[in-house]
Fold this protein.
Amino acid sequence: QVQLVESGGGLVQAGGSLRLSCAASGRSFSRLGWFRQAPGKQREFVAAITVNNEITDYEDSVKGRFTISRDNAKNTVYLQMNSLHPEDSAVYYCAAQRPYTPNPRAIYSYWGQGAQVTVSS
């Protein structure tokens, strides 16, 4: 069974930091990513990283503030979030991709349950 389990969400003040973790199990993946969804808004891509080559991609609004990384030995992907804005408040979902595509925003077959991130103003 494929399982993606997020952790590390919480409530922080604007300008603060959080580190999300996603433990993946049950299968090998080509790419792991983070998406987020705020109430009343569509789910949006945040960041992704390839498992083997550590190629990263970020949504423009988080560049310079968020860093995605992975520990292949632990089958875990992280999202370090710095300089958080209230607009970053959302449920953050970990997602995994199996068939490789050069587009990091496409073809995510597995999803975690989400971690709530709330940034107070």
Summary: The radius of gyration is 13 Å.
